[in-house]
Amino acid sequence: MSESKLYRVKPEIAASAYIKQPDYQALYRRSVEQPEQFWAEQAEQFLDWSQPWQTVWEYDYPKGHIRWFEGGKLNVSVNCLDRHLAQRGDQVAIIWEGDNPEHDKKITYKALHQQVCQFANVLKVQGVQKGDRVCIYLPMVAEAATVMLACTRIGAVHSVVFGGFSAEALKDRILDADCKVVVCADEGKRGGKTIPIKANVDEAINNCPCVEKVIVIKNSGNPVSWDENRNVWYHEAMAAAPDNCPAEQMDAEDPLFILYTSGSTGKPKGILHTTGGYLLYAAMTHKYVFDYHDGDIYWCTADIGWVTGHSYMIYGPLCNGATTLMFEGVPTYPDAGRFWQVVDKHQVNIFYTAPTAIRALMAQGNDFVTRSNRSSLRILGSVGEPINPEAWEWYYHVVGEGRCPIMDTWWQTETGGILITPLPGVTALKPGSATLPFFGIQPDIMDGNGNLMSGEATGILVIGKPWPGQARTIYGDHQRFVDTYFKAYPGYYFAGDGARRDQDGYYWITGRVDDVINVSGHRLGTAEVESALVLHELVAEAAVVGYPHDIKGQGIYAYVTLNAGVPPTEALRQELLQLVRKEIGAIATPDVIQWATGLPKTRSGKIMRRILRKVAADELDNLGDTSTLADPSVVEEIIKNHAKQ
Ligand code: PRX
């Protein structure tokens, strides 16, 4: 590993940074030694409260009980909008850049506030009350921010479902959260392609009795099927809605949103975040990790369907009164220079994206980058998966021209915000390392037996002590929350990732240690893909593993056993790919389907995934112990067929 490479903090970056090297240690120490005082100060500094809290924090990990600022009252939309109006009402809150490079718009804080109040009234007219769940299934239209914030204004809990998920996946999520209203668009546009959003909703809600109304944003303008009783046009409802809507005063621990993510077993889990702690943590990390200053143009390329879109495109930036850019399209449309054209067009200062995008653009050559100017860029960010040093160096030298530090931010849907990260004015960078913990975060490494390891170590990443942005439960299944995160390593939060800590205390995330794979920064449970495959009547069994993929980080490798006597054909392979797309979405489509007459199992019938992972990764001389297999000949056949892939 290129550990010898160290990129020291640049004086010009440090000069204007909020947090500088000499102050960092003391501040970090205070954050972990006097957490109560530290977080109380931050909560006062970052948020407007209408009533002070009674207790700063309270937790009992074995019960999965985590509370921050209980008794305190606030409203997220007030913190993201109303309180900015006097000072920055005419400042742009959101720059929206369309899929089509000729389309863009700028929305001021004043305008956004007005639209949010109007849509909050629309939701009320449609019967949505505090605590009700609203599903948001939208492409990256500017109205997405309005809809999310309008939910927070009246205390409705939003559940954003990524627009790339299929009707079937949408249905599961609507049912799990028992959503009363769905907000969608007629169609989406991405990379010049059309996405049938409303049609997917229609298909999904055929089986969702909980849904009373579907509010539809006119985006493409193409005709869509219409049910007079259930469907409402967004623009018509907005035209009739008053723009005055008092904000609901929420308890800090009232639910804010549910966001589904994949685990190693079972169906996706609805991660629940609450109001005060989440907003504080999103805002504080946004300000310090990206060193956001007034007037900066900030761009996070994530989709609102993922937690990065929630915390670092909407809530963190708007809470800080920032100008945040929202991009409807993809990095390679109309060509692979799009990101950098947008950077120049809007004079972006801070740019936050995923390693998979960096790798895809790197593969297209430097010309697409160098034909742009990019002199506005000051800070770069990376999130979602480990960034390989080669991609890091390209991002740093070619995109940033050696001028912009890269914040490699490690975190998860469950953590609400960034936990391990450099800070621009503080941390010397090592390509591929997420470096050091943010304030208040206490990472540790454990061995497989649950013993803490000190000094340089490689093992399981755990986090001691809660932080305000931490998830509070899995919606409707608190026991699963306890079992997943707090059982294996008592007293700690188990993140599901492995990590190495080097001699300087820097953390290097090595990837998931469970059956979750990370495909282009999208988190998928192998069990979900397997469940989709075995729905086919000709499939007897399926085992899915991740394997190294140059662009996606990990690809999806599926071993499929057909029923006895069924011939494996190309047509069947295509049917299976379609089935996965239909059940989950295009992001879950296997890259490889390998036919197998049998899967390697222990005598007790457990599939030995370790072997399947090694074969998929081409590590054939390193299969480990196969003596416990019920039928070792299965492995030989699997290796033989792998060679044909
Ligand atoms: O494996 C880690 C990886 O992404 C997982 C979390 O996925 P998700 O909940 O979808 O959230 C993604 C956006 C925060 C983690 O368990 N991951 C995320 N960031 C990094 C990372 N792996 C290495 N380095 C990172 N910077």
TrEMBL record:
One Pfam family hit: AMP-binding
GO-annotated molecular function: acetate-CoA ligase activity; AMP binding; ATP binding; metal ion binding
Biological process annotations from GO: acetyl-CoA biosynthetic process from acetate
Highest rank taxon of the organism: Bacteria
PANTHER family: ACETYL-COENZYME A SYNTHETASE, ACETYL-COENZYME A SYNTHETASE 1
Family matches, as CDD domains: ACS
Broad EC category: ligase
EC id: 6.2.1.1
Reaction catalyzed: acetate + ATP + CoA = acetyl-CoA + AMP + diphosphate
Function, in words: Catalyzes the conversion of acetate into acetyl-CoA (AcCoA), an essential intermediate at the junction of anabolic and catabolic pathways. AcsA undergoes a two-step reaction. In the first half reaction, AcsA combines acetate with ATP to form acetyl-adenylate (AcAMP) intermediate. In the second half reaction, it can then transfer the acetyl group from AcAMP to the sulfhydryl group of CoA, forming the product AcCoA.
Keywords annotated in UniProt: Acetylation, ATP-binding, Ligase, Magnesium, Metal-binding, Nucleotide-binding
SUPFAM superfamilies, sorted: Acetyl-CoA synthetase-like
UniProt-annotated binding residues for CoA: R190, G191, G192, K193, T308, S520, R581
Name of this protein: Acetyl-coenzyme A synthetase
Mod. after translation: Acetylated. Deacetylation by the SIR2-homolog deacetylase activates the enzyme.
Chain positions recorded as ATP binding sites: G384, E385, P386, D408, T409, W410, W411, Q412, T413, D497, R512, R523
Modification sites for N6-acetyllysine: K606
Family: Belongs to the ATP-dependent AMP-binding enzyme family.
Record's keyword annotation contains Membrane: no
Domain spans labelled AMP-dependent synthetase/ligase: 82-467
Gene coding for it: acsA
Gene Ontology CC terms: cytosol
